[in-house]
Amino acid sequence: MADNSPGGNAGRPRPGGIRASGRRRRRPDPRRRALKIVLCALVSCVVLAGAGLGYLYFHLNGNLKGVDINAALGGDRPKNPDDGSMDILVLGSDSRAGSNAKYGSGDTGARSDTAMVVHVYPGHKKASVVSIPRDTLVDRPDCVEHGKTVPGEQDAMFNTAYASGGPACAVKTVESMSGIRMDHFVEVDFTGFKKIIDALGGVKITTTKPIDDDDSHLHLRPGTHTLGGEQALGLVRTRHGVPGGDGSDLGRIQLQQTFIKALMQQVKSGGLLSDPTRLYRVADTATQAVTTDTGLDSVSKLTGLAKDLGGIDSGAIKMVTLPVTYDPNDAARVLPMATADHQVWNALRHDRPIPAKATRGSVGDKGGTSDYVK
């Protein structure tokens, strides 16, 4: 039934766009509509970007593998001075499993092919790095792995600690040798190392003499080179292809130390932070390549560590090899020099520079390769 009351058609639109009130309806302003669309688009982008960043964060976190060193070692450890210094054990493992099989066969399990104690001084503006030759004969302590005790051994090669009891045993052995508590542990294997270098776009070095090593597939003429992952791995592993080198692990350590400084310089000066796509690629590769202690097994913790160490220039890093001498009973092994080693570790415990006299009589820094790479 029609509504004949005076107000029956109130609020209903009439032809011509006139409301009952007699006021003409305002037509949409194209500019206001465009602004509304833009704002909606911006909000949508922010939401999507936030979701994307959240995904990336969880993706990178999911890449990381952590080892609970504190739980494995318990309370039988050196005291932490809590003075702002930091000690990190960095290991390069030489497992021949999976993608690493082409780098050698016949070895089971993994060993710590490279071991470095990084001591960051209070203020985090300088650091000392002590390389421990893998062939150093040490007294390895008892360790526990997967709930089982791994008996210690006297005069064992240092790299058997990792092979026998995993990362926790390597940390315990270093702490036993040095009397210094390791705050953190970081491990990278052959394949992971290569991928990180490739993700960075290579590392630039200069060789002063030719390097030819068929075993590590490395052939470099004197001059400047940008090494990809495979070549970089060949450089840090070569022992026999460097004329003048002694063919031992000691010469290889010198090459490793030089390369690490070049790598640090590349990261700091290579414009990585200004290239989000490349930065993500490096972050994705690095988080898949490393194993850390549980104090570093998240993106936020690793980022915090990177910020802490970001202020250290490569020139503010002192690198030495643990003072050693050749074993008279086996030329392929080296023995710690007790007095000199004490001077090295004591200096780090008290946040002092490593005294030059500590390494004077050592064969550790006389591998013959220190001037081959710049």
Question: How does the SSE layout of this entry go?
Answer:
Layout: H1 30-63, E1 65-67, H2 69-73, E2 86-93, E3 112-120, E4 127-131, E5 137-140, E6 143-145, E7 148-150, E8 153-157, H3 160-178, E9 184-189, H4 190-200, E10 203-207, E11 211-213, E12 218-220, E13 223-227, H5 229-237, H6 249-269, H7 276-289, E14 290-293, H8 299-309, E15 317-321, E16 324-327, E17 330-336, H9 338-349
Parallel strand pairs: 1-14, 2-9, 4-15
Antiparallel strand pairs: 2-3, 3-4, 5-8, 6-7, 9-14, 10-13, 11-12, 16-17
Helix pairs in contact: 1-7, 4-5, 4-7, 5-6
What does this structure look like?
α1 (30-63) packs parallel to α7 (276-289), α4 packs across α5 and α4 packs antiparallel against α7. Helix content is 36%, strand content 22%. A hairpin with a 2-residue loop joins β6 and β7. It has helices spanning 30-63, 69-73, 160-178, 190-200, 229-237, 249-269, 276-289, 299-309, 338-349; strands spanning 65-67, 86-93, 112-120, 127-131, 137-140, 143-145, 148-150, 153-157, 184-189, 203-207, 211-213, 218-220, 223-227, 290-293, 317-321, 324-327, 330-336. The chain is of the alpha+beta class. The chain has one domain (69-359): LCP protein (Aminopeptidase, 3-Layer(aba) Sandwich), CATH 3.40.630. The longest helix is centred in the N-terminal third of the chain and has 34 residues, at 30-63. Strands 1-14-9-2-3-4-15 form a seven-stranded mixed beta sheet, sandwiched between helices. Strands 5-8 form a two-stranded antiparallel sheet. Strands 6-7 form a two-stranded antiparallel sheet.
